[in-house]
Automatic annotation (TrEMBL):
Residues 6-231 form the ABC transporter domain. This is ABC transporter. PROSITE patterns: ABC_TRANSPORTER_1, ABC_TRANSPORTER_2. It is found in: Cell membrane. It is a peripheral membrane protein. SUPFAM superfamilies: P-loop containing nucleoside triphosphate hydrolases. SMART domains: AAA.
């Protein structure tokens, strides 16, 4: 698989007495799309700025593409495509001039792809930057991040301001980048778009990593509501204390509970009776992540 693309060890950033990042340990594998999620102020943008050497860590280390972001900044900049949360460019120029200038900073790399990418996104190249809406400025940012086919894409809220059709085009571009072997590190608040493209998800809260896994694994570990019905009333004591079972309620021939983890023990207990119905309700995607944003932190999220 090669060298891990991003390796952060005890990465820490404080701003005076204010916490930005508190001992982050994170590994991003070659060729994967990693969704980087968390509430506002969790440390997502701080992490991205540290990866790009836009700010320096208070403690800890980080390697990007096997290199030191500080010592090897020039070499890394040619291999990375970066889309900030709010792109700021010289508003006096046209889109064409702006993108051509940015290509020239990389020795002309990607200049021949500007037209095709702009066409896919519906971006008018002759338009002055100052006349663009938020969504069209975002398109400029997407083109400059993708045009040189970088090994690593670092995307901070990449679909902010885009209409739904352009969002789908963007997600297709992410998929194409991953298919050619690029690694994508994407911070976003739009959970459905992350779920559509991410191989794994890292969740950060208060500057610390609280979860790192696939969507499927996170869903499997979530609390589900289970409703069971039987042909006759059951004794709830038979189900009390089963692994993963909480909030147990019985009403005649019906039994309701919350379940975390494997349903095996619950199903084994249920099949001692005649079961007439079973419904397991998965948490909504937003509820699942809200539990990580606000609930108790896992003991070990690494």
């Amino acid at each position: 698989m090669g060298v891990d693309v991003i390796v952060a060890e005890n990465l820490t950033k404080t701003y005076g007495g204010r916490r930005g990042l508190a001992g982050l340990d994170l590994v991003v594998r070659p060729g994967e799309v990693l969704g980087f999620l968390g509430p506002n102020g969790a440390g997502k943008t701080t992490t991205i700025r540290l990866l790009l050497d836009l700010i320096r860590p208070t403690a800890g280390t980080v390697r990007v593409l096997g290199l030191d972001p500080r010592a090897d900044a020039v070499a890394l900049n040619r291999r990375i495509g970066y889309l900030p949360g709010d792109l700021v460019v010289d508003s006096r120029h046209t889109v064409e001039t702006c993108l051509g200038f940015l290509a020239s900073l990389r020795g002309g790399a990607g200049r021949d792809r500007i037209g095709a990418l702009a066409g896919r996104l519906g971006l008018e190249r002759s338009a002055p930057i100052r006349s663009l809406s938020k969504g069209n400025r975002q398109k400029v940012g997407i083109v400059q991040a993708f045009m040189h086919e970088p090994e690593l894409l670092i995307l901070d809220e990449p679909t902010a301001g885009l209409d739904p059709l352009v969002q789908q085009t963007f997600l297709a571009m992410v998929g194409e980048a991953a298919a050619r072997g690029a690694t994508v590190f994407m911070s976003s608040h739009v959970l459905t778009e992350v779920e559509a493209v991410a191989d794994r998800v890292a969740i950060i809260r208060d500057g610390r990593l609280v979860a790192l896994d696939t969507f499927a694994a996170l869903r499997a570990s979530a609390v589900r509501r289970v409703d069971l019905t039987f042909t006759e009333p059951v004794d709830p004591a038979e189900f009390a204390g089963l692994p993963g079972v909480t909030d147990l309620h019985a009403d005649g021939a019906s039994l309701r509970c919350h379940l975390t983890g494997s349903p095996d023990a619950l199903l084994r207990a249920a099949t001692r009776h005649t079961v007439t119905g079973i419904v397991a309700t998965e948490p909504a995607l937003e509820d699942l992540f809200h539990s990580y944003y606000t609930g108790p932190e896992p003991i070990d999220a690494r």
